[in-house]
Design goal:
Layout: H1 24-38, E1 41-43, E2 45-47, E3 50-52, E4 57-62, E5 65-74, H2 78-95, H3 100-115, H4 119-130, H5 134-161, E6 171-179, E7 183-188, H6 193-205, E8 210-214, H7 219-231, E9 239-241, H8 246-254, E10 259-265, H9 268-280, E11 290-294, E12 299-303, H10 309-321, E13 331-337, H11 338-352, H12 373-388, E14 392-396, E15 400-401, E16 407-408, E17 411-415, H13 421-424, E18 431-437, H14 442-451, E19 455-456, E20 458-462, H15 466-475, E21 482-485, E22 502-503, H16 514-517, E23 521-529
Parallel strand pairs: 1-5, 7-8, 7-10, 8-9, 10-11, 12-13, 12-20, 13-18, 17-18, 20-21
Antiparallel strand pairs: 2-3, 4-5, 6-23, 14-17, 15-16, 19-22
Length: about 550
């Protein structure tokens, strides 16, 4: 593996297309949506570059029209895991020895393809299969993934340049950054196409190979990502695409001695299960697997009496209801002084009532559907509980309708109990709970914000009082891995805000930074002596 100290192109964030009326990108994506929506694709496994059809099918449906089947996909079982591991290890022998420039070129090409001819395909697949509106698809499936590809190359080059500071004559000290021995298990979520791509691409850039298990509700966009990787020149077997039941794929992977790492985004419960299983099998692995995970969140907005009311209202709406609240960073609880809440409540309610919801192919809509029936039932359960409780009221929204698609209205729950279940538990839907706190109890409210949830992913503080901003930053220091001041707690940008959280929210390895890439290399320190001692005796042993 080459550790060449070349300088790749300096990255900049991909420009976000507007898709405004009259723009060429609007016409292009409309046509792509129409074409892909009219097809019914059959999606194979892809193992070692070979398409494999198992005959055991799952379906990719539109969440906003659950009668519409976009694709049927073949499902893997334990036997396909064995086959994928074998294919990955064949690929590892050559890919791990590729010159660094050649691996980087694959992902730089993937970025250019996604920025150009593949943009509409990946965006449309994300819109149709995951019910994202065109703007949410654009910032995720196109811009963020392009940024991951480009910035990862930049950060990886910086890692390779990190060498020992001093080599006193007559020696040369250096470090070699080797890929991990074995394979990485990439387990990816439905809600961000960019994450699905990066959880595979980041380890692969560093010379690793992966087995990719996508979420069953994002196989559609995942398949097109796999085809993008192939079009960019990724060799067969470097990434192996194996959608299928977790109950079959997971145990088969975790029992493999050549498991070198897990790159995961999903639920805390699932990640803890994976961690526990690795621990139980630890003596059977070739090495200690690297465990990198970003999991749940119960993300907060904390407002001070000095907060700008208009900025706070907009942050609540965007932070809680963009992509139906199905972001691990979505605002899900807010602590607002009673006097300020009284000032903004009616206007906020009126504004939320203007939010349009429906088919994402209708560009007038702000919101689509939640991902599936299971998510719909879970989210609805929190709303029903609030309706039945004497500690909470539904301020706005609360409507749930799954007759055509899995639609849940943007909902605000107001509660008098800072430990109400919707203030503490992850919901992952368009529901935010508000706790109006007495102005005199701001310190207690800060403590409640810090302790009410086991998560620590994102959070935001709104205030114009600088002393309070400093105070809140200290009080909530460990409550969020991504902390925002006078901004919504969503929307981290690669190269600007590396993303990840602590506590029950994950290992905080910061996707979109060198910190994450460092997890996918195994460093070898090399000392070479040009003139070596020829006598074992120390100088002090000599006779005077």
């Amino acid at each position: 593996m080459s550790n060449a100290l070349f300088t790749p192109p300096h990255p900049s964030n991909e420009a976000i297309l507007s898709y405004a009326p009259g723009t060429p990108e609007r016409a292009g994506i409309k046509q792509q949506l129409q074409d892909m929506g009219a097809e019914r694709v059959e999606i194979p496994l892809i193992i070692g570059g070979e398409e494999i059809r198992t005959g055991r099918f799952g379906e990719c449906i539109m969440p906003h029209d659950h009668t519409h089947v976009l694709a049927r996909y073949h499902q893997a079982d334990a036997s396909h895991v064995v086959r994928a591991v074998e294919a990955s290890q064949v690929a590892w022998k050559t890919w791990s020895e590729f010159a660094w420039e050649d691996r980087a070129a694959v992902f730089l090409k993937a970025a250019e393809l996604l920025a150009g001819p593949w943009r509409n395909t990946i965006n449309a697949a994300t819109m149709l299969g995951q019910s994202k509106n065109v703007f949410q698809a654009e910032i995720d499936a196109a811009c963020e993934l392009i940024d991951f590809f480009r910035f990862n190359v930049h950060y990886a080059a910086g890692i390779l340049r990190e060498q020992p500071m001093y080599s006193p004559p007559p020696m040369w000290n250096r470090c070699e950054y080797r890929p991990l021995e074995g394979f990485v298990f990439a387990v990816t979520p439905f809600n961000f196409t960019s994450i699905a791509g990066n959880l595979n691409a980041a380890p692969a850039l560093m010379g690793n190979v992966s087995l990719w298990k996508p979420s069953g509700t994002s196989v559609f966009s995942g398949y097109y990502l796999m085809k993008l990787f192939e079009a960019a020149g990724l060799p067969p077997g470097v990434i192996n695409f194996i959608p299928g039941p977790s109950t079959e794929i997971g145990p088969a992977v975790l029992n493999r001695p050549d498991l070198a790492g897990i790159h995961f985004t999903g639920s805390t419960k699932t990640f803890q299960h994976l961690w526990r299983s690795v621990g139980e099998n630890i003596a059977d692995y070739r090495g200690y697997p690297r465990l990198v995970g970003e999991t749940g969140g119960k993300d907060f907005i904390f407002a001070h009496q000095s907060a700008d009311p208009e900025a706070l209202k907009t942050a609540i709406i965007r932070g809680a209801f963009e992509y139906q609240g199905q972001k691990c960073s979505a605002a899900s609880r807010a602590y607002i002084p009673q006097s300020l809440w009284a000032r903004i409540k009616d206007d906020l309610t009126d504004e939320i009532k203007t939010i349009t919801m429906g088919d994402v192919q209708d560009f007038r809509n702000f919101m689509g559907a939640v991902i599936d029936a299971r998510a719909f039932a879970k989210i609805k359960g929190y709303i029903v509980h609030a309706e039945d409780s004497n500690e909470a009221t539904i301020v706005v929204g609360g409507g749930c309708d799954d007759s055509h698609g899995y639609f849940i209205e943007p909902t605000i729950i107001e509660t008098s109990n800072p430990r109400f279940n919707s203030m503490c538990e992850e919901i992952f839907g368009p529901v935010i709970s508000i706790y109006p706190y007495p102005h005199s109890a701001v310190d207690e409210a800060l403590q409640q914000c810090d302790s009410a949830s086991p998560y620590a992913l994102t959070g935001a503080v709104f205030a114009t009082d600088r002393a309070f901003i400093a105070k809140a930053g200290a009080a909530l220091r460990h409550t969020a891995g991504n902390f925002y001041i006078n901004d919504k707690p969503t929307g981290a940008v690669v190269g600007q805000q590396p993303f990840g959280g602590g506590r029950a929210s994950g290992t905080n390895d910061k996707a979109g930074s060198a910190l994450n890439l460092q997890r996918w290399v195994n460093v070898r320190t090399i000392k070479e002596s040009f003139v070596v001692p020829t006598d074992y005796r120390y100088p002090h042993q000599k006779e005077s």
